[in-house]
Amino acid sequence: MTKPVIKWAGGKTQLLQEIKKRMPTYFNTYYEPFFGGGALFFDINPKKAVINDFNQELINLYKEIKNNPLDLIEELKQHQINHTEEYYNVVRSDFNIRINDPGSLSIKDAGELVYLNKMGFNGLYRVNLNGFYNVPSGHKKRCVLFQEQNIYEASEALKKAKIICGDFELSCKKAKKGDFVFFDSPYYDTFDTYQRGGFTTEDHKRLAKLFKKLSKKGVYCLLTNSNTDFIKELYQDFNIDVVKVKRMINCDGKNRTGEEVIITNYRGDELC
Ligand SMILES: C[S@@+](CC[C@H](N)C(=O)[O-])C[C@H]1O[C@@H](n2cnc3c(N)ncnc32)[C@H](O)[C@@H]1O
User: Fold this and answer.
1) 38 C-alpha to center of ligand 1: Å?
2) 151 C-alpha to ligand 1 centroid (Å)
3) 112 lines ligand 1 (CB under 6 A)
4) Residue 7: inside a domain, yes or no?
5) Is residue 182 classed exposed, middle or buried when 0-12, 13-18 and 19+ CB atoms within 10 A define those classes?
6) What is the CATH number of the domain that holds 94?
7) Which domain holds residue 182?
8) What does the pLDDT look like over 211-245, one tens digit per residue?
9) ∠ at Cα 187 (185, 1), nearest 5°?
10) How many percent of the chain have pLDDT more than 70?
11) Is there an atom of ligand 1 within 6 Å of 194 CB?
12) At 265, phi and psi to the nearest 5?
C-alpha cells in the first residue's frame, strides 16, 4: 500500500480506517481539495482524481513525483549523503530563496521540501510573517528520506490525478453527481501553521456552504474536523459521527485522547 511521501501536520493516517469505512461504495472522480500528505488518496489509489492544496511548494513536489520520480530520487540520495546539522541550515536558506516565487519552483525545491520535512522538527511546515520557512532541525541522527518503491507507486497514483494549486472552493467547481469529495481542512480552533493568515472562521463557513451546494448537486461529501459546537452547528443537517483519536502531547510525550468528527452527506450510499 502506498504511503504519504511526506509527514504532514493533520495527516490522516490515524483516522484512515474510520474514514474508509464511511466512504461511498461507488463513486466516479475522487476530489481532495486540502491534500496535505494525501494519506487517504495514496491508500485508496483512485482511478480518477482531482487533488488540490494552497501550498505551492507542496504542489510542486507532487507534480515532480508524478512527472520525474527518477530525478527526485537522485535529489534525495544526494541529501541523504550530505546531511549534517550545518547542511540542514544551508538547504533551508536555499529553499527560502525561491519560496515566494512559485514560477521558479523545480525538482530541486521538491527534493529540498522532502529533506526539510523529514529532517526538520516534527514534520512541521511553518513560515514566518514574511513567508520564509523557519522550521528548525529535528536533530535526527539517521537520514532516511524515502523508499524507492513508494515513490514509484506514488508517481503511478498521481498520474491518474489532475493536480491543482489554489483555493479549495475553486478546485471543486467541476465536481458532479456521483463524484466523491474528501474535505480535510485545517481544523477549527487549532493553531494553524499551514499558511499565513490561517484558516479563519469565515473560511469554515465558506466550506460549509460549499458542502451544502455539492450535496444539492448529488456529490458525495465526507469531512473531518474537531468535535466542537461550532462545527456541529454548521453541519447540523448532515450525518455527524464522533470518533476518538490519540494525541501526542509534546511536553511529556504521553498520549491523550481527543475527539474528532466525521461528517457525511449520505448514509450507506443514500444522500441526505
Ligand atoms: C489538515 S491538512 C490536510 C491533511 C491531509 N489530509 C493528510 O492526510 O495529510 C490541511 C491542508 O489544507 C491546506 N489549505 C489550507 N487552506 C487552504 C485553502 N484555503 N485552500 C486549499 N488548501 C488549503 C494546507 O496547506 C494543508 O495542506
Assistant:
1) 9
2) 21
3) no
4) no
5) buried
6) 1.10.1020.10
7) 16-54+166-266
8) 999 999 999 999 999 999 999 999 999 999 999 98
9) 55
10) 93
11) yes
12) -100, 25
